[in-house]
Structures are given as structure tokens and as C-alpha cells.
Model the fold of this input.
Amino acid sequence: MIKTYRGNLADQTQDRIRIKTNRGNVGYRIVKFQIAPALPGASSYESVVKIYKNKQTTIDGSVDFTDGDLLAMAFLEGNASNQYPDNIQVIFDHEIFNQDFYVTNFDADTGAACNYYIELEQIMLNDNEAAMATLQSIRQIAE
Done:
């Protein structure tokens, strides 16, 4: 089963996507991640949208793939004189997670808002897999 989430994020804000269950026996994996400017062709934009396992205290445009909390990132660059983006990059991990996750937006150019669209594949976990996914989440929080 595929679940979809979409939203619009103002610059330097984050959304919490609630997916956790009481037993944690349902896991998810990102299968599609797309972003689009909130006002295409109206202004320039350089949006960095990231998906994290935990709430972020700082929202910035820095991307560090060694961060174990980072599940995905997308970069979108464009200007007002062109209706099509100049550059777009999307990278996501196929990691299975079973806790709420967070989507952040940082625009390095004009502070523009950005839309996101996420598709998650739902995966039923046995008790051992659910415990492992939950422990990984707890370990990330402790770090």
C-alpha cells in the first residue's frame, strides 16, 4: 500500500508527519519525493527541502549525508525569468522507519515557500523488525 503526504512549507519551517502506531508494527519506506516552488515564475528560488527522522532545532541549507537522521533531500533552483527550474536534485534513502518524521524547507535566495509531495510504501513488520526500527529511532534521538 502507498500512502501520500503533501504540503507547503514557508522558508525555515518544518512539518511533522505523523505515522507512528502504538505497536510500531507498520514500517514505511520513501518511494517518491518531489518538490515544487510555491510561486513558479513569480520569483527566484533556491530551496533545500529535507526529510529527517527527528525534529530539527536548526533549519538550514546545509546537506550532510553522514547525518544518520537524514532520510532524504531535494534541491530546486530557478528564477523568475524562466518558468522551468534551472536545477533539481532529489536523493532519498530506502531505509525503513516506523516513527513520525519531519520535513524542512530552507530557501537560500528569496526566502520562498516550497511544496512537497512524498509517497511512502507501507510495510508490515514482524515483532523483531518493529523492535529494531524503534530502537534505531531511539538511538538517533540519544545521539
Observations:
- Strands lie at 2-9, 13-17, 26-37, 45-52, 70-78, 87-92, 101-107, 114-124.
- The mean pLDDT is 87.
